[in-house]
Design goal:
- It is built from 22 helices and 20 strands.
- With 773 residues, it is of the alpha+beta class.
- It has a four-stranded mixed sheet with strand order 1-4-5-8.
- Helix 14 packs across helix 19.
Length: 773
């Protein structure tokens, strides 16, 4: 569905749940006696909108939504804790019936669409089981009909169901049957759940059914059940995402209005950071949901991939909603612990949804079993013909694009540079940089009009993954990832013509001059000054001062920097953005060694350095606007999956060599991190698409830097732990004939949480500029 259609669905759903008082009706459901019946009028209201059949085809009277459309309804339902069994009936049951042929299945689907039938899917036989294959519940098929024997657990809706869609084991394979309510031999035991819903345990004691009760058997039955469960898990993730978002909004409203010690508690930094973490988890979940929905709506995606992605998004949205609900209770204080507070309704709904259809751990394990575990080995890849300098990359399939990149790396990338444990120096990477430049691939994210590849976001992610999995070192690339994109957006045509080609050709190697002593996080406190002057050679600036933490300045020949051009103006209003040749007289560079002993950072001193006036980017004294734009580019770069994917690849290399995958605890932790990286890539894609569209990055890009660096750090910590005694070895080790350094990712990730604005500063930005605390 297009954006406008999805927005219309969401608006209609939000309007209905608001007008119908969903929150009030949910409270009634929780507070009423256990034996009270469900409000039939509420389902009639849902039926009047056609939502029972939102996933049913038009031939059955349905709305023929794809999963993205249905997810908008479920997300709105989550935001209003709607008490109707939309997920169970309009989701699971409809998804199953729409894939079945035959008159009985069509009749059931038409009743579901009309709102007169509420079939419940009965498939689970043991707690935590996600298998589509029946275990003990069996059926004997004969010429007169079927004989059903066994038990099903956690069947929703409970008492409201008009019958059950039951999976059973026949002689050869799965059989799907329809068992109407009131059928002899069926015993239903209801269990009240935390949010007022009832789940049924069904006992079938030699239940005799007519032949028409057999809806499908064999492969069609299993295929329908697998698709229904996968789609249901994705829709459940959407409802959890909506519930978590509502919890966040309630919490923010409380933080803005609750006063303690004479001020709103939302002004307290500790509480702001807790709220920011809620926001970050929910935003990552939202991005993951969007990515998986797009994949699920692609008819070419196989069921195995769909099942893996369904578990991935369910685990992410469940974890985010649980984190939000638990934090919200703490941030509300005593009132959050009461049933009187509406937060309690959302908290209980989250608890029920997070337990039904598998919890976070269950889905992480399932993802690990369905997706390829460990690092992909780079077997030789054949590529016939020349590698294209330019192409319609959007039209190329991802598989072909990856094969092309992999073949290029295998043919062209120097083997001695794979898996470097230190930040690569220009002397090491120059030839590789020039190889990429000659191929036209050195600037994958730049527009083709400026000499880049112009990769769309999905291919950009594939590019990053292939380079990281092959162990390609990062060349000194500040020109490519920072100043180049800045000049494309904010530079004059003359500046673009003068600098961009030289960046691509490797003639100009750039570094960043932002931080100064006592002006790191407080960037606007910088004191390096640039005074305007004029002589026979023209207008220029005279620069005096010092920059620090300048990455690989000793390898660069140019620096872009912030300087103070008006000492009397307010801190952020007297700053300008200059480009400077580091070979200019008066510049001194002194390296600083990191924890790993590498001279990665530098101090740069300026003593009456002359900078031509045409090297001013943007307006005089307008450097803060340029700086914020550049910080956006920096944060999206620092938030890319590159570092985490590299570290995860190192962890997988170690695990494949040392065999810790045999340890279920390690495998669980590895899988959780693998999902963190996959969902980081989804979030990165969201922001990359904003850049591609030429729009300014919003302040929320700070969440990307936080999630990326902290994921990187968690992987680095596990890598050291899994290395055991070798985790204390300084320098490189040998692992299957390639260099390996257990400490490098951990030490590197420690600095990643500091540079580019510390993660604490990023949380402050999110709290004030996004959450308005």
């Amino acid at each position: 569905m297009d954006h406008e259609s999805l927005a219309a669905i969401r608006e209609a759903a939000t309007d209905y749940f608001t007008r119908s008082g969903s929150i009030r009706r949910c409270r009634t459901l929780i507070e009423q006696p256990a034996d009270a019946g469900r409000d039939a009028a509420s389902w009639a209201g849902i039926a009047a909108l056609g939502w029972p059949g939102m996933l049913a085809p038009e031939s059955a009277g349905g709305l023929a939504f794809d999963l993205s459309g249905a997810a908008e309804v479920l997300r709105a339902a989550g935001e209003h804790v709607a008490p109707e069994p939309l997920l169970a009936v309009a989701g699971l049951s409809a998804l199953l019936l729409r894939r079945l042929d035959g008159a009985p299945a069509r009749a059931l689907l038409e009743e579901l669409v009309a709102g007169t039938g509420l079939p419940a899917l009965a498939w689970q036989e043991s707690a935590g089981d996600l298998s589509d294959v029946p275990l003990e519940c069996g059926v004997e098929l004969g010429p007169q009909g079927a004989l059903l024997q066994g038990e099903k657990l956690m069947v929703l809706p409970g008492a409201a169901a008009t019958g059950w869609l039951v999976s059973a084991r026949g002689d050869d394979d799965t059989v799907l049957l329809w068992v109407p309510r009131g059928t002899a031999g069926v015993t239903e035991t209801l269990t009240r759940l935390v949010d007022g819903e009832h789940a049924a345990t069904l006992r079938f004691d030699r239940v005799a059914l007519p032949s028409s009760a057999v809806l499908a058997q064999g492969e069609p039955a299993r295929n329908a059940l697998r698709h229904a469960l996968a789609g249901g898990l994705i829709l459940q993730a959407a409802e959890l995402a909506g519930t978590g978002q509502a919890i966040l909004q309630q919490t923010l409203a409380y933080l803005r209005t609750r006063v303690q010690f004479g001020k709103p508690i939302g002004t307290f930094q500790a509480l702001q950071h807790r709220a920011v973490d809620m926001f970050i988890h929910l935003e990552v979940a939202r991005a993951t949901l969007a990515e998986v929905l797009a994949l699920a709506d692609d008819p070419n995606v196989g069921i195995e991939r769909l099942e893996a992605e369904a578990s991935r998004v369910n685990a992410r949205c469940t974890a985010a909603a649980l984190q939000a609900s638990r934090s919200a209770v703490q941030l509300h204080g005593a009132i959050g612990y009461t049933q009187e507070c509406d937060l309690s309704l959302f908290y209980k709904r989250t608890l029920r949804l997070s337990a039904w259809l598998g919890n976070v751990t269950t889905h992480q394990r399932r993802y690990a079993s369905l997706a390829e575990a460990g690092a992909r080995t780079h077997e030789p890849v054949e590529w016939i013909g020349a590698f294209p300098r330019t192409a319609d990359w959007s039209a190329m399939t991802e598989a072909d694009f990856r094969r092309m990149v992999r073949a290029f790396l295998q043919q062209r990338y120097p083997s001695q540079l794979r898996y470097l444990s230190h930040r690569a120096r220009w002397s090491e990477m120059r030839e590789w940089y020039l190889t990429l430049s000659a191929q036209g691939w050195v600037a994958p994210a730049w527009p083709q009009a400026h000499g880049g590849m112009g990769l769309p976001a999905d291919k950009m992610i594939a590019w990053i993954e292939e380079l990281e999995q092959y162990g390609v070192a990062r060349a000194p690339d500040q020109g490519i990832v920072m100043i180049g994109p800045l000049l494309i957006q904010h530079g004059t045509p003359e500046q673009q013509q003068r600098f961009l080609p030289r960046i691509l050709a490797g003639e100009h190697v750039w570094c960043q001059g932002y931080s100064e002593p006592n002006a790191g996080s407080d960037l606007a406190g910088l004191r390096t000054d640039a005074m305007q002057a004029r002589d026979a050679e023209g207008d220029h600036f005279i620069v005096n001062g010092q920059k620090i933490w300048t990455t690989l300045a000793q390898d660069a020949n140019h620096i872009f920097m912030l300087v103070r051009t008006d000492k009397d103006a307010k801190k952020q209003e007297g700053i300008s953005f200059l480009l400077c040749d580091l070979r200019t007289a008066g510049i001194t560079i002194r390296p600083i060694h990191t924890l790993a002993g590498e001279p990665e950072f530098c101090e740069v001193f300026f003593d009456n350095v002359r900078v031509p006036a045409e090297n001013l980017v943007g307006k005089l004294h307008g450097g803060w606007t340029i700086a914020k734009a550049l910080l956006g580019f920096e944060r999206i770069f620092l938030g890319s999956p590159k570092q985490s994917q590299y570290a995860l690849g190192q962890l997988a290399r170690l695990a494949n060599a040392k065999r810790p995958f045999a340890d279920p605890v390690f495998t669980q932790r590895y899988t959780a991190l693998r999902l963190d990286v996959a969902d980081l890539a989804a979030t990165y894609t969201d922001f990359a698409n904003i850049v591609k569209a030429g729009k300014p990055l919003p302040p929320s890009v700070s969440l990307l830097k936080i999630w990326a660096s902290e994921t990187y750090h968690r992987i680095g910590a596990l890598l050291v732990e899994a290395s055991e005694e070798q985790g204390a070895v300084a320098g490189d080790q040998d692992l299957d004939g390639q260099a390996f350094n257990a400490l490098s990712p951990l030490i590197g990730s420690t600095s990643a949480m500091i540079y580019g604005g510390t993660n604490e500063i990023q949380r402050n930005i999110l709290a004030r500029q996004v959450l308005e605390l």
